[in-house]
Amino acid sequence: MSVISANALDLTFETNDGPVHALKGVSLDINKGDFVSFIGPSGCGKTTFLRCIAGLETPTGGTLTVNGMSPDEARQARAYGYVFQAAGLYPWRTIGQNIKLPLEIMQFGRNEQNQRVKSVLELVELSGFENKYPWQLSGGMQQRASIARALAFDADILLMDEPFGALDEIVRDHLNEQLLALWARTEKTIGFVTHSIPEAVYLSTHIVVMSPRPGRITDVIESPLPKERPLDIRDSQEFIEIAHRVREGLRAGHLDE
Amino acid sequence: MRRLVPVLTVVLAIFAIWYVACVPMNVREVLTQAERAGAEIVPAAAAERRDAGALGLVLRNTAHLGASWSMERAKLPAPHQVAVELWDSTVGEEVYGRRGIVRSGTLSNRSLIYHGGVTLSATLFGFLIGTAAGVLLAIGIVQSRTMEMSVMPWAIVSQTIPIIALAPMIIVVLYSLGLDRFLPEGIAGLLPKAVISAYLSFFPVLVGMVKGLRSPDQMQLDLMQTYNASRGEVMRKLRLPASVPYLFASLKVGIAASLVGAIVGELPVQRGGLGARMLAGTYYGQTTQIWAALIAAALLAALLVFAMGWIERRTLRSMGVQA
Amino acid sequence: MMLVIAALLIWAVGWGLNIWLANGVYSKSGLTQIAVPVIFGGTIIAMWELLVRGLEVPGVILPPPSAIASAFASSLPILWGDFVQTIVKGALSGFAIGLAAALGTAVLVDRYDFLKRGLLPVGNFMAALPIVGIAPIFVMWFGFGWQSKAAVVVAMVFFPILVNAVAGLQDTTAMQRDLMRTFGARYWNTLFKLRLPAALPFIFNGLKIAITLSLVGAIVAEFFGSPTQGLGFRISTSVGQLALDMVWSAILVAALAGSLLYGVLVLIERRLTFWHPSQRG
Fold first, then answer.
1. In chain B, which end has fewer C-beta atoms inside a 10 angstrom radius, N or C?
2. How is domain C72-280 classified at the architecture level of CATH?
3. Who's near C263: CB < 8 A, 6+ residues apart?
4. Closest Cα of chain C to B50: distance in Å?
5. Among chain C residues, CA nearest to A88
C-alpha cells in the first residue's frame, strides 16, 4: 500500500535570474515500512522534495498525497516526524522539555507526556539525560535527541533531511546502526536525504538517485540486502555492486548537462 | 516603494491621531472661548465643566469645537500651527523680521536657526571632547592591564547612573569658577553645556572603542608577532584600523547623546539654545514654541545621525570595507 | 601643602599596588578582580578629600567626600522621600507601563508585515531623538506630580524596548520555524514556545538601556516642575542654595538607585536567559 505518492510533481521558484526548476516531473510511490533514501548532488531537489512531502513547500504542478491526504492536511494531522540537518533543540529547554514540545502543542495529557519522553529516550539510548540542557551534550547526542523529538508523537512517517551530515564518520556509523535497529522495531516509513553513497546503501530498501537542473529522478534502485544488516555488510560484494550502480546513476545524471 | 507606502501610512496615521487628539485636549479652553463669544455650552456652569470628562464635553458640544485647531495657547497645538510657528521662527524671522539676518546682518535671537546653532555648537564641541577622551582612554585600557582592571568596572557602573543629574551642578560650578576671565567669550559660554555633552558621549565611545580595539583575533595578533612588531605598531597597523567600524557604531549613539546633553545643559542657564527655548515656552505657556523647539531638536538629531552615517559609509568605503 | 603631598603619595601607593596586583601571579583570581577597582575607587576618594582640604577648595565648588557623607547621613529621611517620589513613583511606574506597551506593540509589529515595514523605521528614527524634550509638554499636561514624570519615562523607554523586542522576535532561524510547522503549531504556539523565549536576550538588552533612561527622564522632568520632593527638585533647589553637599547626596542616591536597578535586571536576565551563549561564559 503506498503511503506517499507523487505524480509528475513540478516546483519552480521565481528568482531575479529567471525561473529555477527545483523539481520537474517527479513521480514516486513509497510503501508502508519502506526506508527510502534520496541521493544526488546539491541542487538536485532532494531536500525540496522532502519539504514538499512535509507541506513546507507547495508544488507548482502535479499531485502529491500523504496517507491519502494533501501534504498540508497531513501536516495539520501530524502525520510525520521531521528531523532537520541540525538538531535545532531549544537551548532554554532541557532535553526532556524539548521532546515534550510537540506533545504540548498537540495537547497530550501530562502523564502521557512524561511516559512518552521516557520511552523515546530509551529508544535513542539517551535515558538519564532528560534534565540536561542541549548545550551540555555532544553533537551526536543532540541529533539523537532531535530524532527522539520527532518520534515522540508516534507518527507513522519519519522524514529526515541529512540528519547526520554534520557529524564525524565514527559517530555517523554508530547512529546509522542505531537508526536501522529503531526502524526495525517501530516499522515506520522513512524518507531519508543524504549525500553519502555508503550511508544510502547501508540504510535503505529503496535508493532514489536524483540530478539537478532541472531536479529530477534518474534511477530508483531496490536494495537486495537483507533487513538484518551488521556494519560489516558494507564490505560484501552485493553492497559494493549497489554502491557502484548508485555512482553510475549519479554520473549519468551529471553527463546529461 | 516597499517601505515608502507603509512608512507614509504610519506617518499619516500619526498626524491623524494628532489632529483628533487636539479636540479633547483643547476642549475646555475652546468651550470657554465659545461661551465668551455668546454660544450656549452644556453644562453651562464653569465649575461643573471643570469636573466633567473631556470626552463627555466633546460629545455634548459638538457644534462649538471649530476652534480646536486654532487656539492661541492650545494645550496641544495642531500640526499646522506648529509648522507655521516653525516657519515664522526660522525663515519668517530671519528674512522678513526686523532683527533677521537680511535686515540686520546678524541672526535674530528670536529665531530657531540662532538657537539651533547655539545648541549645535555646544553639541559638536562636547562631542569632540567626549570622543577624544573616550578613544584615548580606550587605547590606555587596551595597552595597560592595570588601567583596564582599575577603570573598566567603574566605566561600566557609570553607564547605569543617570549622569544627566549632574548637569545643573556642573554648570553652576563651572560658572562660579569664573572661566569667562580666562577663555575667549564664545568658548566660555559653551563650555558648561559642552562638558555635559562630552560626558554623555564619552561612555558609548569608550565601550565601543575598547570592543573594537580588541576585535582582531588571535591569529592576526600572532601574525604581527611573527613580524616582531612592537606594541605601538600592533596598535597602529592592526588594532586601530580594525576598530573603525566599532567606533562609528558608537559615534552614532554618542552624537545623539551629546545633543541630549547640550539641550539638558541649556535648561538651567537661560543663554540661548533649543533647551532654553523649551523652558521659556513653559514659563509663558507658549506651547507652539515648545513644540517648534522640540521639532527643531528632532530635525537636528536626525541631521547629525544622518551626517555621521554618511561619514561612516565614506570612510569604510575608502578603507575597502563592504558597508 | 602636607595634605597635597599625602594625596600624591596615596595615589602613588594605590596605583603601584594595582600595577603589582594586575600583573602579578594572582591577577586572574576573583579577589584581585574585585580588589583592583575597589583600591582605585578608594584612592580617588582619598585624593579628592585630601586635595580639597589641602588646596582649600571652597565648598560651593567641590565639597570633600566627608562633607557629602555627613550631609547624606543627616538627611536620610528627606532623601528617602525623594527616592520614593522620583524612582518608585516616577521612574518605575513609567518603566512598567512603557515595557508593557512596547512588548504589546512589538508582538503586533512582528505579526503584521505592513506594520513592520511602516512602524519600524519610524521607531528607529524616534529612538535616536532627544525625547527628554517632551518633558516640558508632559509637565503642562499631567501636572507637577509623579504622573507627568511617569509619562515622560514611558515615552523615553518605549522605542528602545520596541526596537530591541522586534529584532528579538525575528531572531529565529528558518529551521526553527519549519520545525514548529511540522508540529502543526498555531501562531500562538510559535509565539510563546519559540519567539518569545528566543527574543528574551534582545529584550533584556533593551531593558538595560531603558532602565537608565527611565531615571534620566524622571529626574530631568522634575527640572520643569515638581512637588517639593524628588531628586530632580532636590538637585535644582540645592544648586540654587549653593548647598553642593546636598546636591552630591542626591546624585549619590540616583547613582545607587541606578546601579541597584541595573543589578536587579542583570540578575533576572541571568535567571531567564541562562541558556544563551553570552550567559554561559
1. N
2. Orthogonal Bundle (1.10)
3. none
4. 15
5. C176
